[in-house]
Each structure stands twice: as structure tokens, then as C-alpha cells.
Inverse folding.
């Protein structure tokens, strides 16, 4: 199996490299601002009720997480009644092994796959390829980044970081076709190749946007029709779903479908919404075999944490990425995770461990924009703050100089005489230009310029007069 793409511990260096990339900065600014503009326009459809809808979506998702054990029992019973085989995977390796076992039992090695962040999370493609399978991503953006041997850089726009010229070069190098930078021509080339893959695929693998506990129907939202072909043309369909994707009743879908498309792509509704309920005895009407793999991978641990459990409410719309000033400059690859942006900075330390992803909660200005735009009202700024506090106070993960420095700062601000002495020292250093060398502060910010004298000094001076 090839080396993992995901290294969140490299975030500081990767972010610095991304910020220095002028082309990437232009692309990120244009793409994220374009998405935000589209979203703003369609949210205006609900000038008086959008906030009410956010409250309702929050309550429904919260109820599902609070009653997750019951929801999963009901979902399993509904799916099995529909003829779907249900599996539970505790972690990444178990989910991979179950998937491979199902494929081997059905002698399937040619696989088409539709876009799924959950399968990115467990890095399913390289595992299956290392075990003799051919896996082809069929979402155009995913197909492009797969050809370029890199992970998606955005939850909903995987190739957001690439220009049409770069994509034309990738197609030329990887597919051996004549160079073109015309988007329509490139799309037609990809469509022709993928059509052949669909026709010869022996299995289709998809994610799940929503799993309805009461009916057992799995809902997959998309725009290109590739998920529909992935889940209907091959004889075998495997759906891989995080356990938090369950919702209590199918009737609640209406609110989520309205909010997901608007928040993700600025559409009033996605082009295709697939409802997958059961295998079909008639090959022409869909897959004859359906499996659902419910993935835990640390989610029950998150659920048990009252301060962070609301991160499981996420519906993977990507709006918090678009509005985040850090994502707008660092881009998705810098995060070294399947999940990037503010929601990634919350989820990744919980999935991968704070020792590995300790930098990510600090990749935020705490401006609050991510919490304001989230359609299900996840309190992302507060969760980032909680993770920062735990890293700083409990785990001894921050560098020694930072821990000692913060301890000294605390003792200083609690001692007025000491605070005043250090204040004088700081003003002297500022006049000598020494504060310009403070690491990690002045290179990105305006130099610190303290007042000529402190408040106490001025107060004493005024009293003498």
C-alpha cells in the first residue's frame, strides 16, 4: 500500500508553503468567494425562516446523536428487512477488511466509486489497489485528483486547487490524450473513459449523505449522475456510512436537502438525489446485492464527550471551509486530513489523536464565521477553543518554551509590580527594535508598538500635578 496522503502533523510547514504559493492564493480566493456569493443568493429564498430552519436541523441532528444507539438499531432492522446486509466496523482497518471480504466473496475486482468523504477518511482506494482491485473515482473532481495521485482539497470541490490548464496537462500526461484546456472538451474525454468503466464494473462503492432509520433508505446527493450509475449498474453495491449520518425519519430529509445544496454549492437543490432501499432481483433495475458498512472509527468516543459531541452533527456541506480565512489561504491539502477547514480542525484531532493533529485547532482566527454559516449550528469556535485548552493545559503537547512562557505570563499579570517592570522592559525592547524578531508573531502581523508610558505611570504623574 502506498504512503498515506494524510499527515496532519505537517500542517505548520504545509500551510507556510501554501501561503507562499501565489497561484494557489488566487485560485482559493476566487473559488471560495464564488461559492459564498452563490450561497448568499439562494439563502435569500428564506429571508425570514433560514434561522428557524437551522434551529430545526440542529434539533433533529442532535436528537439522532443523543439517541444514536436506538437509531442504529432501527436503521439496521429496516435495512435488513429491505434485504440489505449490514456490517459494523469499529475502526479503519475493520472497514477496509469488511469491504475487501465482500468484494472477494463476489469475485469483484473492477470497482467504480462515487465521491465519499468516509472512504477518504479510511483511505480505502490504496488499500483495495494493494489487494489487486482496480478502483476508479467517477465524480469528475475526484477522478482528476485520483489521476494526479493526491487527495481532495475540499469536501465538496475536490479539484478546487487546480486550474483548467493544470487539468489539461494531467489528462495529457496520465491519459495520453491531446492537450486541451477547454473544460467542455476535457469533460467529454473523462465521460467517455468513465462510461467504459461503468459498463465493465463488477462492484460500486458509495458513501451515504443520510441514512433514514425508519425506512432504511440510504440517501446519496450528487450533481453528475455518477453516483446513480455507481449504485445501480454493477451487480454489487457497497455503501460505507459513518454512524452519525443516521436521521430518525425520512420526512426530515426535506429540510436537510434544502440546506445541504444551498450551503455546499449555492444550488436550490442538487441535480440528483438517490434513494437506495433494497437490492433488485432484476439486474436491469439495480444491484442484486447490497451491503451497508456502518463505521465508528472514534465516533462513539466523540459522542461521549459533551463538549465536542456536536461536531457529529456535520452534514459535510463545506460552507465553513469557504468562509474560513485560514482555509482561504492554506487550502485543503495543508491540513493533511480527509477533513479540512474548521470542521476538519475539530474532527481530525479526535479521529487521529491530539498528539498527531495538535496544530489544527490553532489554525483558526476564532472570528466565528464558521459557526455563523454552519447550517446545523455546530458551535465550531467554541469547540476549537476547547481543543486548544486541552492541548495547552492537559497533554503537555505544546513546545516547552511556549508552556514556560505562558506560565510566566500568568504569574506576571497576577503581580502588579512585576507586570510594571516587564512593561518598562518591553517598551525599551520596542524602542531598540528587538520586538520585531518575536517568532510566529511579527512576520504575519504589524509590529507591536506599546504606548510611551503605562497607565500607572500616567496616573502617578497626574496625581503629582
Amino acid at each position: 500500500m502506498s504512503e498515506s496522503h494524510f499527515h496532519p502533523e505537517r500542517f505548520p510547514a504545509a500551510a507556510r508553503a501554501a501561503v507562499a504559493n501565489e497561484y494557489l492564493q488566487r485560485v482559493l480566493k476566487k473559488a471560495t468567494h464564488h461559492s459564498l456569493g452563490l450561497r448568499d443568493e439562494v439563502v435569500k429564498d428564506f429571508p425570514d425562516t433560514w434561522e428557524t430552519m437551522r434551529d430545526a436541523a440542529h434539533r433533529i441532528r442532535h436528537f439522532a446523536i443523543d439517541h444514536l444507539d436506538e437509531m442504529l438499531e432501527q436503521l439496521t432492522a429496516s435495512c435488513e428487512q429491505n434485504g440489505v446486509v449490514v456490517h459494523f466496523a469499529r475502526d479503519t482497518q475493520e472497514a477496509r477488511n469488511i469491504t475487501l471480504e465482500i468484494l472477494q466473496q463476489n469475485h469483484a475486482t473492477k470497482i467504480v466509486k462515487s465521491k465519499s468523504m468516509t472512504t477518504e477518511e479510511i483511505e480505502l482506494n490504496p488499500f483495495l489497489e494493494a489487494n489487486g482491485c482496480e478502483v476508479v473515482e467517477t465524480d469528475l473532481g475526484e477522478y482528476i485528483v485520483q489521476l494526479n495521485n493526491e487527495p481532495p482539497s475540499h469536501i465538496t470541490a475536490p479539484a478546487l486547487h487546480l486550474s483548467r490548464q493544470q487539468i489539461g496537462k494531467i489528462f495529457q500526461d496520465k491519459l495520453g490524450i491531446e492537450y486541451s484546456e477547454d473544460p467542455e472538451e476535457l469533460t467529454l474525454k473523462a465521460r467517455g473513459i468513465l462510461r467504459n468503466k461503468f459498463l465493465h464494473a463488477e462492484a460500486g462503492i458509495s458513501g451515504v449523505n443520510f441514512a433514514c432509520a425508519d425506512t432504511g433508505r440510504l440517501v446519496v446527493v450528487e450533481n453528475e449522475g455518477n453516483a446513480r450509475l455507481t449504485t445501480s449498474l454493477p451487480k454489487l453495491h457497497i455503501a460505507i456510512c459513518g454512524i452519525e449520518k443516521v436521521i430518525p425519519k425520512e420526512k426530515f430529509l426535506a429540510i436537510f436537502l434544502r440546506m445541504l445544496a444551498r450551503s455546499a454549492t449555492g444550488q436550490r437543490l442538487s441535480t440528483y438525489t438517490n434513494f437506495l432501499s433494497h437490492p433488485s432481483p432484476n439486474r436491469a433495475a439495480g444491484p442484486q446485492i447490497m451491503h451497508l458498512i456502518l463505521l465508528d472509527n472514534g465516533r462513539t468516543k466523540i459522542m461521549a464527550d459533551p463538549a465536542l459531541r456536536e461536531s457529529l452533527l456535520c452534514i459535510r456541506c463545506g460552507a465553513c471551509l469557504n468562509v474560513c480565512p485560514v482555509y482561504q489561504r492554506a487550502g485543503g491539502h495543508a491540513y493533511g486530513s480527509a477533513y479540512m477547514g474548521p470542521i476538519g480542525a475539530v474532527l481530525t484531532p479526535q479521529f487521529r489523536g491530539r498528539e498527531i493533529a495538535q496544530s489544527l485547532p490553532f489554525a483558526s482566527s476564532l472570528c466565528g464565521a464558521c459557526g455563523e454559516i454552519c447550517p446545523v449550528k455546530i458551535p465550531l469556535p467554541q469547540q476549537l477553543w476547547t481543543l486548544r485548552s486541552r492541548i495547552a493545559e492537559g497533554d503537555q503537547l505544546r513546545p516547552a518554551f511556549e508552556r514556560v512562557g505562558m506560565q510566566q505570563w500568568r504569574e506576571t499579570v497576577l503581580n502588579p509590580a512585576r507586570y510594571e517592570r516587564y512593561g518598562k522592559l518591553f517598551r525599551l525592547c520596542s524602542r531598540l527594535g528587538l520586538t520585531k524578531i518575536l517568532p510566529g508573531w511579527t512576520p504575519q502581523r504589524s509590529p507591536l508598538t506599546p504606548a510611551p508610558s503605562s497607565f500607572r505611570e500616567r496616573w502617578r504623574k497626574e496625581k503629582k500635578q
In short: DSSP finds 21 helices and ten strands in the chain. The mean pLDDT is 93. Strands lie at 85-89, 110-113, 134-137, 203-206, 210-212, 218-222, 236-242, 246-247, 272-276, 289-295.
